Amino acid sequence: MAGNDGAQLGVGMVGYSFMGAAHSQAWRTAPRFFDLPLDPRMRVLGGRNPEAVAAAAQRLGWESTETSWQALVGRDDVDLVDVCTPGDTHAEIAIAALEAGKHVLCEKPLANTVAEAEKMVAAAEVAARRGQVAMVGFTYRRVPAIQLARQLVADGRIGAVRHVRAQYLQDWIADEDAPLSWRLDKTKAGSGALGDIGAHVIDLAQFITGERITSVSGLLETFVKERPVATEFAGLSGQGGTERGPVTVDDAAIFLARMSGGAIGTFEATRFAYGRKNAIRLEINGSKGSVAFDFEDMNVLHYFDAADDPAVAGFRRIVVTEPQHAYVGHWWPAGHGLGYEHAFTHQVVDLVEGIAAGTHPAPTFADGLVVQRVLDAVERSAASGGWVEP
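-> structure tokens emitted (390 positions)
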């Protein structure tokens, strides 16, 4: 691997479902729209079922397959391992890949427990001394409107941060007859709405404000305690069979937070908000103004400047599609919006550029551990009924 001389970056990915498809699209697209210093090659896709992984590799554009993640990690043509598996396997795969000398991209949340995340960070720190990169996939950071929100806050445009309001609202299991999946099994997922989607707004709130969550008071609820056991043909929104199994994670999470700079926050994550498909809502209020964002209108950022003439003051609707906005100049003319998949492409761009430059793009495994500790603190607070520090 070198610079702009056609040097290749061999990629091996473990997992090929929802996140695997999104990551595959990003690996295919990034070098076609961005001038990358390394040429990513989709060398191998890993999955346990040989027929299914072969079909996925053909569909998604991978050159070969492995049915053992250990074999994938051990391949000489793999420079980077992309981990798109359930959370209970993140630590084992990522640590093995780092110890094998590979760069690692790991989906969020980093692990299922703080202890696992700490081991991953320790392995990443050792690997970093050998020039390896370990990055966690908090992809929403790379939405251009989120990048603009962070810049406005960093530039002091809203003054000192006072309030943080963060929500992630979905409805894909609001139907109590939606079948069980691995995301509803604590041994696989670690937690429910809290870790699956709450982790994103925790990371985004800290990313935009530049502050850390220092204490939390949380509430968790599981509304539907048992669900149909899915047949092999049942999808997330399909119908299961007559047998029902236990739901062992939270359906919804709510918590209050104190931030390191003095701000207070309210956070909500639920998969029971009928009509909300992927509503990531953030509003940051400061001493001089506010910013507000909703992913269901992802190309727009709302900005309020308290210094405006009160006669005409109001939230300014900024369409974040100008070429000077982050990443946007590599895509379409102004006004032609981006979609969900583009943030994954931007993640690949930042990762590849960091590897080539010998720098470490964020979010690092250490950043992932920060979020993991907040998730753990919310769970402990919900159990104890008191305020808890991460």
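The first strand starts at residue 8 and ends at 14.
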